[in-house]
Amino acid sequence: MSAVAEKDRAVVQLLLDAGTCPRCVLRFCSVGSQLLYRHPLQDLLKDLQEFLKSSQGKEGTVCLDVADPPCKRLRLEHKEEGADELNHNGAIPQLPSAGSTGNAGNAALSGNTALESSAGRVCNVCLGILQEFCEPDFVKKVCQKVNSADYQFTSFVFSVSLPPQLSVRERAAWLGVKQQMRNLGLPLAKDDIVQLKEAYKWIIHPQLAEELGVPADGKSLFEVSVVFAHPETDEECHFLATACPDCFKPAKNKQSVFTRMAVIKALERIKEEDFLKHFPCPPSSPKNLCDALEIQCNNGAVFVAGRYNKYSRNLPQTPWIIDGERKLESSVEELISEHLMAEFKADSFNFSSSGREDVDVRTLGNGRPFAMELVNPRRIRFSAEEMKRLQQAINDSSDKIQVRDLQLVTRSAIGRMKEGEEEKTKTYSALIWTDKAIQREDIAFLDDIKELRLEQKTPLRVLHRRPLAVRCRLIHSMRSEYLDQHHFRLHLRTQAGTYIKEFVHGDFGRTKPNIGSLLHRTADILELDVESVDVDWPPTLAD
């Protein structure tokens, strides 16, 4: 049984007289019934009026036979006590307690006054959030926005952003309620007031679920959010900056220092007597409702993985742009993302892979593992057959790359690709030139070298984007293939992260040992191919 009890009579009267809406009255009376909040405002106001008219000494209640779910509470109590008798002029207005002589008649009279004064007014606490923005017309407006955005979703989570000054108004109203409870000799626990957001979601969730045809689910990846603002009362937080300047510091990407968290932090610090010197208690009613500034939809990211082969020696992995100037017309990333972005209808993407090759290096064999995060996709469901068709579309669009094993994966699964960057092995094929003539026997000894340990300083060619360090890497094995007196091909199996070009030419002695030092002559690399990236991910798919 959820009810407004006899002990709450003076609180109900105080709040209604001050212009508080019936649903906020329920919140301050610690009513935790979700179904009760969903009743029409006029019905709730009428019930509260009848409650105030009930005779003194009779256990009057406003109640419905509904289940009592546990509810979250909003902490408004400040740890310091004092100044309970003060408002902005130095005194909190007091009403006769429910148990005082002659209170029944006064309560009934005040109940009629409260009904008249509350009807049609913007709530002095929630600024209309629990009034107009709980009505079917607003719910339909939200759902029209959702449906017009053309998202795929099977459930939703609803979030709401409230103006920070609501916390100030809630504190002011709570100080009045606390004083009335003390006048009655009743305690008011710190966490007894139902959060505005919680009450709003109790009301709005079933309406949105019915209109959208899918359930509300706190774990859903599809978010519907509403951002409220109330320009008329924007400056009500500003006195807190004088009282608690440490709470309001400029931050990146914040248009104002008066964020909700900053205001809450300041309210926890400010003394009650200081608060009441600057803000009326109870707060006055505004002229205008809140504005619903934004109604937004956002789908959780979708992750696609696969392997790519790169057949061009004039194609970077990612866009090659220096000082705002594009050096090459395309990249592996762009050739793949163009199709994924179009099919998933995403806002943006993040590309990652198991290592990377230089612009002039081909990637052959079974390809290089890659993953792409598609941000805020409208479409999220693809069958295996649809993914095959998408893969084929990518492959048909260019002869520079090919993609295989294209599939949907989870965010956590991408970690398996990253694990292989340092711990797994890679195989390469390098075409090498030497300044002095060579015979087969001059390079044959390379085949017998196993687990050759290198010390590689950060190469000069990447020093502008990577920190200077000495990295130890292993050449697990090599196999030479003689071509002519100045050329041979070297097949290498190495630890991931080895700089192969520098191992060949030595990078002015920054990689030791190197092919030049092993052969006692100048060596350089003419071509390099990645033949395999030995990372066991993503899973191989049947053709």
Describe the protein in words.
It is an enzyme of class 5 (isomerase). The protein has helices spanning 9-18, 22-28, 34-37, 41-53, 103-118, 136-148, 165-183, 196-212, 238-243, 260-269, 272-278, 332-344, 384-397, 414-423, 440-443, 500-505, 515-519, and strands spanning 2-4, 62-64, 73-74, 157-161, 193-194, 222-229, 291-299, 302-310, 321-322, 325-326, 348-353, 362-375, 401-409, 425-434, 450-457, 470-484, 487-495, 511-512, 523-533. With 543 residues, it is of the alpha+beta class. Among the domains are: 302-421, Alpha-Beta Plaits, CATH 3.30.70; 426-533, Alpha-Beta Plaits (2-Layer Sandwich). The strands form five sheets. Strands 8, 11, 12, 13, 14, 15, 16, 17, 18 and 19 form a ten-stranded mixed sheet that branches. A three-stranded mixed sheet has the order 4-6-7, with helices on one face. Strands 1-2 form a two-stranded antiparallel sheet.
